[in-house]
Amino acid sequence: METLAAVLWERRGKWSIEPVELDPPGPQEVLVELHASGMCHSDEHIVTGDMPFRLPCIGGHEGAGVVKEVGSQVSSVQPGDHVVFGFMPSCGRCPSCSTGHQSLCDLGARLYSGRQIADGTARHHARGQDLSTACLVGSFAYHTVAHEASCIKVDPSVPLDRACLLGCGFVTGWGSAVYAAGVRPGDTVAVAGIGGIGAAAIQGAKLAGARVIVAIDPAAEKKEHALAMGATHVASSWEEAPSVVADATWNRGVDRFICTMGVGDGALVGKALAMTAKRGRLVVTNIHPMAENSVNVNLMDLTLTEKQIVGTLYGSANPRADIPKLLELYSAGQVDLDGVVSRTYPLEGINDGYADMRTGRFLRGVLRYPAAG
Q1: For the whole prediction, is pTM greater than 0.90?
Q2: How far apart are CA 109 and CA 105, in angstroms?
Q3: Nearest 5°: CA angle at 326, between 92 and 42?
């Protein structure tokens, strides 16, 4: 069949909206009509080359839609089911999945290849070439074919232009606070970078019982968003943050510091660690450029105060359990997905949406497709 998709043909280029030929799903694959896709900063990393996905590539990994066709061996979904794509496929059988760490599934080793999990070939084609798909999903498109391992069935009552956020950003931020940071009732927390992931981290920290949540972001427009999500204090810069943290924690530092900036910077890791309390934990969620190999950290401070530096992928969450759980929390009014969406765009507006994202003034853009009505 023919569909429409946003394709990146060269590094630092623009997304090109054009027809794509889509093959039928293989035995373990699913054809999905997409209704919406979140515009995650990770797709910007594909443009800049910080994440070296194979080009040409259909972007998007934070999508949701309706199953239209399934392969002969698919058992977890059927036509008509509503699904959210997990950007990290989960097989359920590898050592990571079987010990409750689906975010580290062995299938993730194939993400950068952009080819189908089952046989390493492509189902998407344009201009006579095979196309890769971001995170084996390719949700910047009206339709896509993906492996069953990437599809999580969700309740059809939840709007898909909100459910799509759980394919990556919201689960990543929420899990960074609840799982990777291990926020407990009464903890003090700082979140640096209040985009879609940072806003979710604030909500996760609040729901976990944090009594102090310091939001750090230079955009004045985000102050009210951060406070509405649950922040108790705000700082407008890394220079202002130490005094805000000190005042909020009686000079102890925060128990948990979570980095969710759009692009990580090794020079800031030491500053974050300096604001972290004794036996506190610094969680690095944001993507750093792949070529960056150095950080500035006072290792004496790390040792003598027993601090921890922890990395996290997908918020250390289990997508098959946590995506439905968070949608239930959303339906119950305990997490706010609506407030995270700053603006929606048609597929043709994708380049405008990423230009808006680069200004740093809003939380999350969402692409809505004709199937959404």
Answers
A1: yes
A2: 8
A3: 75
